[in-house]
Design a protein that fits this description.
About 30% of the residues lie in helices and about 25% in strands. The protein has a nine-stranded mixed sheet, sandwiched between helices. Helix 5 links the parallel strand 9 and strand 10. Helix 4 packs across helix 9 and helix 4 packs across helix 10.
Length: about 475
């Protein structure tokens, strides 16, 4: 029988709380969502922008929570016979719990940030490190002010490799998070014009990403993309922050870890690379040059963490694009199939270009077309219309046959597209659903992408509802 995640005694001490009621002796997990809570979990009642966890304490206790971590100011509103650890602020208590979890482990830790590719890189690291030891990593994109401490609090004491994704859309957000995580290795995938609405320039974004160096452990390593235009600035900021070792990755051949050869395989890419002076051959189970580029960073981190490089490289063959981030499935349409590429989770200029490249590499069936269904990219500020219009060139280069556009900023692209590529434009994504489901044909490859607020996800679901998936390739 495995040890519990926390004893109640250690939990209470870590978060500085006071027990009230019949608190369970052992805690098997940490939850902030009563709907997914498992019996034995500690439920942390966090107050968010829309919901307050205290409103769901009764449901969590009914579901078998070992205890509920609650604010003292809300205690009188909660069931009298509940199992509570009482604190002033549950979110601050969860941060303290995360810090305690980091302090008690001897795990080797890697933190990942970047404008694009954080979650994919985190998941690739999970695969590559699992053959070398017990791995703990965040679920989904838990990379913000509550996601990072929650992931830390969930880390078992006997973890051997910890992987943390750290995001931001304003300066100053990464520093407190990385100081909790205290990584031995920090990866910056790339820096692009993402969240530019909140920054004066891309250089300011680079400076914000470089905050990840603030929490590196003594003797830590920074891994940087030498092909990125902000590389020189990032390296300078790493050295200024006292980082003793900077390893680079890229495709020119001059990096510490460099690409030597790639061959598309249909399902992914076959790669030959040099990783810190060692030649490695491996396959990647998800298509796209961005996955190839980031695999260099992943394997560099594997080596820097002291894990088995050969086993890590071999594991990347099992990589699959997650839901909303390139997941593929086949839909039965008439007597044939349509390949659906789900990129609906988010979008920015760099990830749009990467998605067009993947679509361009896809092979439609007989009489099939490459179809891009794209929605507005958010948080681009005054440059939004120009950045949308600039997508016309990569769309043409990818030999895309038809384009559906949704959102007011996409009108700038629509006006610039060649007439032959225009399918439909609507201000709202939902108004494309009927058109898209009626017009897809057997052999088509359809890629759907846009910022989360543009609500492109329902278009994916509309296609799946109209044309049920033909196989079981959906789950990644």
């Amino acid at each position: 029988m495995s040890d519990p995640l926390w004893t109640s005694e250690a939990f209470i001490e870590a978060c500085g709380g006071t027990a009230k009621g019949d608190v369970g002796a052992e805690i098997t997990g940490i939850s902030i969502d009563s709907r997914s809570l498992e019996p034995g979990d500690a439920f942390i009642a966090i107050k968010g922008d829309r919901l307050d966890g205290h409103d769901y304490v009764a449901a969590a206790l009914e579901a078998g929570a070992s205890l509920a971590l609650v604010a003292e100011s809300r205690l009188e509103e909660l069931p009298e016979d509940g199992r509570y650890v009482v604190v002033e602020d549950p979110l601050e208590a969860m941060r303290a719990l995360g810090i305690a979890a980091r302090a008690r482990t001897e795990a080797r830790i890697v933190a990942v940030t970047g404008s694009v590719g954080k979650t994919g890189t985190k998941e690739a690291l999970r695969l590559a490190l699992e053959p070398s030891g017990k791995v703990h990593a965040s679920v989904a994109s838990f990379n913000n002010h509550w996601g990072v401490p929650l992931t830390l609090a969930r880390m078992p004491a006997d973890t051997e490799y910890g992987i943390f994704e750290i995001g931001m859309n304003h300066a100053g957000e990464i520093t407190p998070l990385v100081k909790m995580v205290r990584p031995h290795v920090a990866v910056i995938t790339t820096v692009e014009a993402v969240h530019i609405e909140f920054f004066e320039s891309v250089e300011k974004i680079a400076q914000a990403k470089a905050e990840i160096f603030d929490g590196l452990e003594p003797g830590g390593v920074a891994i940087l993309n030498k092909d990125n235009k902000q590389y020189d600035l990032l390296r300078f900021l790493a050295v200024t922050a006292g980082v003793p070792t900077v390893h680079t990755f890229g495709q020119s051949g001059s990096e510490d870890s460099s690409l030597k050869l790639t061959v598309p395989t249909g399902e992914g890419t076959s790669v030959e690379a040099s990783i810190l002076g060692r030649d490695v051959s491996y396959g990647i189970g998800a298509p796209g040059s961005h996955h190839v580029q980031n695999s260099l960073a992943v394997l560099t981190a594997v080596a820097d963490l002291g894990a088995d490089l050969d086993l890590g490289a071999a594991a990347l063959g099992a990589m699959r694009a997650p839901k909303g981030r390139g997941e593929r499935c086949l839909l039965t349409v008439g007597t044939g199939e349509v390949e659906l590429i789900d990129e609906s989770y988010n979008a920015n200029p760099a990830s749009m270009r990467a998605a067009f490249s993947v679509l361009g590499q896809a092979e439609p069936g007989s009489s099939g077309r490459r179809i891009a269904v794209i929605g507005d990219m958010r948080e681009l500020g005054t440059e939004a219309d120009r950045l949308h219009a600039d997508l016309a060139a990569p769309i043409t280069e990818a030999a895309i046959d038809q384009v559906y556009c949704a959102g007011p900023h996409m009108d700038a692209l629509w006006q610039k597209l060649p007439e032959a590529l225009k399918a439909h434009y609507r201000e709202e994504a939902k108004d494309l659903a009927d058109l898209l489901t009626k017009e897809v044909q057997p052999g088509d490859v359809v890629m759907i992408k846009g910022s989360l607020g543009t609500r492109m996800g329902p278009l994916v679901e509309a296609l799946k509802k109209e044309y049920p998936p033909a196989d079981s390739t959906e789950a990644a």
